[in-house]
Amino acid sequence: MLNINNKEDKEKMKKYYRTSDMINLLDFFPELSPVTDLIIVENLDEYLSNKKYFDSFKQNRVDTLKGRIPIMSIENSGKSNGFYETIKRVKEIDEEGVLVLFNIDSEPTERYERYAGISIGIDVNESIYIDAVSKGFDGREVSKSICNHERYYIPWFDIRKCTIENFKNYQTFIINQEDYEKTREERIKFLTSIGLEKEKFLKYIPKVYEPIPDFIWNDIIINVIKKLEKIEDNLINCDLSHFAISGHTEGRHWKPWGMFDKSRYELINQK
């Protein structure tokens, strides 16, 4: 087991794709990340020997070492129901694959209860661009380029000027109703495919498109856009001139899990 609270373990954890993303966010935008108690389970024997402890965690991801083919997410409802089958499937895909476990600092919502999924691409000293999906969707759609409901582009020299009052001036795209209905149908199919009951989640996905509310954008302006200018030099010094932050909202706040560094950011864009 690797634990982020152990300095030596933390350095080893940075060698994994998704875990490194989570650590980057904790290091540079700690007020954004909801992640706590981050650990890695390295093999099946380790899991079985400590099953009760590992199953007490609320959230999970799968991961592998950088340089290997990334493991696509093993889709599930997102909450703990015992992780044996997950880590077993990981090892079938990649012998170096691992199970990443963690908690978040609030009660986790169902993945259809969120106001938005949002991905922010940042080119320091150049621009900020935002892809987003709205109510009933989550970060899966934008991080995997499945669909998009709203887009924004903010030149770097406008960071100081950007406020909630003028934010919509930076909008470059909003989905029309016909196309939205298609994405809604696909979302319903996906949620059903991972075992969620349609009668429980259907009411959370509006039939008519509802733009992402201003309180979400205001949260992002305060905690991301305005902060970028303050940490600009630090980002450049750490070779993080180009990166992205992606994730979903929890309640009235954007709570992403990861910040993609340059190597992973470029790998994602090649797909």
List the helices and strands and how they pair.
Blueprint: E1 2-3, H1 7-13, H2 17-28, E2 35-41, H3 44-49, H4 51-54, E3 59-63, H5 84-93, E4 98-104, E5 117-123, E6 127-133, H6 139-143, E7 150-155, E8 171-174, H7 177-193, H8 198-201, H9 214-230, H10 232-237, E9 242-250, E10 253-254, E11 258-260, H11 262-269
Antiparallel strand pairs: 1-2, 2-4, 3-4, 5-6, 5-9, 6-7, 7-8, 9-10, 9-11
Description:
By secondary structure, this protein is an alpha+beta fold. The chain is built from eleven helices and eleven strands. The strands form two sheets. Strands 5, 6, 7, 8, 9, 10 and 11 form a seven-stranded antiparallel β-sheet that branches. Strands 1-2-4-3 form a four-stranded antiparallel β-sheet. It is globular. The mean pLDDT is about 90.
